């Protein structure tokens, strides 16, 4: 059971923001999967009725079920003091690596979108790297807590770099470059809060940028093609550029007010790839226009701002580092997903948190939310 005095400290505003984003997501997913029949002229109220009667038989239903499971996971997470996860950081670290290795088990691991990041659980596929991200954050936070403000030299950074290295190697081997980048961003964000010497971060960034040509040679052909396409956006012969061009055109066609819910033409004509997941922002832009896009951006800004505040108010370094890792995880996913739909970031398989379709992604995001709320309700000052 959760103590009543702790419940008072939960950031219900953060919960409200997530619920609003999720609700918008269900509607856009319903539209993106072309469930609503537009052969007849329907009002908004009638369309909502069709979502309930028809839409819940497909992806939206799975999304809602995943959300309900996520809510249960959040409640379960809140009953455990987050420091208990820190005390078990070594087992969590090992389990996270095992999760990434499970995709190589014959008959269990499957390939989706060119990446071997999934396991087949019968009625659904589960992306193990989603859960591994949380295990990594919880374990790295404890490791950095023990190294807090002791990261002054390059030698001091060897430990954290070795900590993340197995995850990056395994994900690159699975050809999941997008998720590998998420782990790297999480690590740098947590190092910053752990008191790392800023000069080391700058030097590391310069070394990383200068080594990109070398890293490029070790990437898989389809990964190289995505980078080539990003660097040459005007070349329609490169894979991915056509999709990005269609995405930008769809968003632009929505203008200020959009074409209206369930009335987008680009996704209904199958001009947008994976429109209910990777390019869902383009569907939203076409149907809800600049106003809809701005509302979503403001909601995400509020979402991230509240987590930054929770991190600052955490009662200990471990809690601060956990929330920091989760904040950077969400921030990178939001920036990367929206950025690729408008052509300012390379195309990857990263989804938009709480908005894109995906059971494993949504459940993991909900668990991450539960961890943030866990730290929030056990903050420095408890109101009685």
Automatic annotation (TrEMBL):
TM stretches of this protein: 12-36, 64-85, 91-111, 154-171, 177-193, 279-305, 317-335, 355-375
GO molecular function annotation: glycosyltransferase activity; lipid-linked peptidoglycan transporter activity
Domain of life: Bacteria
Topology with respect to the bilayer: Multi-pass membrane protein
Pfam families: FTSW_RODA_SPOVE
PANTHER family, alphabetized: CELL CYCLE PROTEIN, PEPTIDOGLYCAN GLYCOSYLTRANSFERASE MRDB
Name of the featured protein: Rod shape determining protein RodA
């Amino acid at each position: 059971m959760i103590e009543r005095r702790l419940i008072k400290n939960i950031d219900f505003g953060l919960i409200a923001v997530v619920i609003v984003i999720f609700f918008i997501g269900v509607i856009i997913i319903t539209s993106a999967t072309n469930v609503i029949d537009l052969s007849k002229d329907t009002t908004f109220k009638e369309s909502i009725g069709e979502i309930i009667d028809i839409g819940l038989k497909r992806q939206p239903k799975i999304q809602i079920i995943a959300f309900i499971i996520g809510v249960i996971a959040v409640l379960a997470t809140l009953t455990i003091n987050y420091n208990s996860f820190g005390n078990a950081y070594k087992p969590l670290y090992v389990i996270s690596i095992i999760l990434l290795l499970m995709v190589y088990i014959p008959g269990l691991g499957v390939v989706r979108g060119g990446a071997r990041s999934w396991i087949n659980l019968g009625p659904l596929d589960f992306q193990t790297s989603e859960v591994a991200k949380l295990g990594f954050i919880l374990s790295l936070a404890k490791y950095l807590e023990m190294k807090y403000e002791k990261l002054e030299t390059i030698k001091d950074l060897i430990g954290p770099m070795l900590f993340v290295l197995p995850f990056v190697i395994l994900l690159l081997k699975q050809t999941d470059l997008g998720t590998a980048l998420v782990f790297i961003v999480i690590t740098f964000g947590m190092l910053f809060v752990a008191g790392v010497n800023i000069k080391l971060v700058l030097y590391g960034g310069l070394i990383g940028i200068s080594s990109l040509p070398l890293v490029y040679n070790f990437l898989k052909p389809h990964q190289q093609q995505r980078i080539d396409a990003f660097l040459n956006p005007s070349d329609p012969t490169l894979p991915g550029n056509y999709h990005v061009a269609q995405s930008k055109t769809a968003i632009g066609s929505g203008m200020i007010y959009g074409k209206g819910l369930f009335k987008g033409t680009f996704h209904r004509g199958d001009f947008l790839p994976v429109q209910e997941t990777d390019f869902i922002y383009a569907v939203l832009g076409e149907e809800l226009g600049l106003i809809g896009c701005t509302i979503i951006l403001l909601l995400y800004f509020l979402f991230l701002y509240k987590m930054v505040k929770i991190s600052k108010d955490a009662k200990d370094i471990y809690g601060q580092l956990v929330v920091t890792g989760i904040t950077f995880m969400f921030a990178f996913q939001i920036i990367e997903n929206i950025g690729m739909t408008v052509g300012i970031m390379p195309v990857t398989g990263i989804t938009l948190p709480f908005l894109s379709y995906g059971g494993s992604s949504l459940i993991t995001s909900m668990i991450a939310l539960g961890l943030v709320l866990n730290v929030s309700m056990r903050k420095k000052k408890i109101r009685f």
